[in-house]
Write a structure and sequence with these properties.
With 170 residues, the chain is mainly beta. 9% of the residues lie in helices and 38% in strands. The chain has a single domain (24-163), classed as Immunoglobulin-like. Strands 1, 2, 4, 5, 7, 8 and 11 form a 7-stranded antiparallel sheet that branches.
Length: 170
């Protein structure tokens, strides 16, 4: 017969170790992510604009891709209203994860700048785009269904560069 105090200790130990969930893979709780919801899908300031929605869902047969390292990527269109090189990065707000990154091809000093935005894990992500001393920051929720999109990617395309600027916390 197990003593009650030993049973409690075993339950606590099992709860801490036996039933743990990897925080980097856990699906976020939608109500805890303060997503940016732009009117008409365009979020902007005086220097940058970006086409986004509050949530990206990566599912089999759906939009986006899975990169060679397992990160989920999606095409995002930026518009630079000031001269300079666009840099992009991100930080997961609701758990531990490597930083978000972007694959970019440069097209002049201003105007439209397509990119692939990559999220290493599902979760609530704070993303920042920066040109010179000006920045635009937004929050998106990223969800992954099953194995994610069927399209597989092998890193940045020739002629692209990788951007992963540091983004401060919440």
């Amino acid at each position: 017969m197990i003593k009650p105090s030993l049973a409690v200790a075993l339950i606590l130990i099992y709860g801490m170790y036996g039933a743990s969930v990897d925080a980097t893979e856990a699906q976020p709780k939608p109500s805890t992510c303060p997503v940016t919801l732009p009117a008409g899908g365009r979020y902007e300031n005086e220097s940058l604009a970006v086409g986004i929605r509050g949530k990206f869902v990566f599912r089999p047969g759906g939009q986006g891709f899975v990169d060679s390292d397992g990160a989920m990527g999606i095409k995002v269109l930026w518009t630079r209203k000031v001269r300079g090189t666009l840099e992009v990065g991100g930080k997961r707000l609701d758990g531990l994860a490597p930083p978000a990154r972007a694959y970019l091809k440069d097209y002049g000093d201003t105007g439209i700048q397509p990119s692939y935005l990559l999220f290493p894990t599902p979760g609530c992500w704070k993303i920042t785009g920066r040109v010179g001393n000006t920045a635009l920051t937004f929050v998106v929720l990223v969800e992954k269904v099953a194995s994610g999109p069927t399209w597989r990617f092998r890193g940045p395309e020739p002629g692209s560069r990788v951007s992963s600027i540091s983004v401060e916390g919440a």
